[in-house]
Amino acid sequence: MLASIIGGLFGLLIWAIAAVLSLAGFIFWLWMLIDAIKSKTLSDTEKIIWVLVIIFLNLLGALIYFFAGRRNAY
Q: In 10 A of CB 1, how many CB atoms?
């Protein structure tokens, strides 16, 4: 009985962690997509390419844009 309760709580904890990580990944992806679209330092062609990379490669594309394509205009 106790083992099934602990197992159920552990499963719920794993599910909650996965949900939080998924939401954080989606928010990061959306942030990078909006950043690429609104960037004033990228040309129109570069914007289109980066938007396509971010859309088709999902989180990997967002990470690539964050480290390689993002330029600070500040």
A: 5
Alpha-helical segments (H) within 1-74: 2-38, 44-64
Under a CB-based contact definition with an 8 Å cutoff, are residues 47 and 36 in contact? yes
17-68 pLDDT, tens digit each: 999 999 999 999 999 999 999 999 999 999 999 999 999 999 999 999 999 9
Q: Which residue has the tokens 């993002």?
A: 70
Instruction: Tell if the pTM clears 0.90, that is, is over it.
Output: no
The structure tokens listed for 36 are 């690429």
On whether the CB atoms of residues 74 and 68 are closer than 8 A, the answer is no
User: What secondary structure letter does DSSP report for 2?
Assistant: H
Tokens 């990944």 sit on residue: 25
- How far is Cα 43 from Cα 50, in angstroms, rounded to an integer? 11
Length of the chain: 74
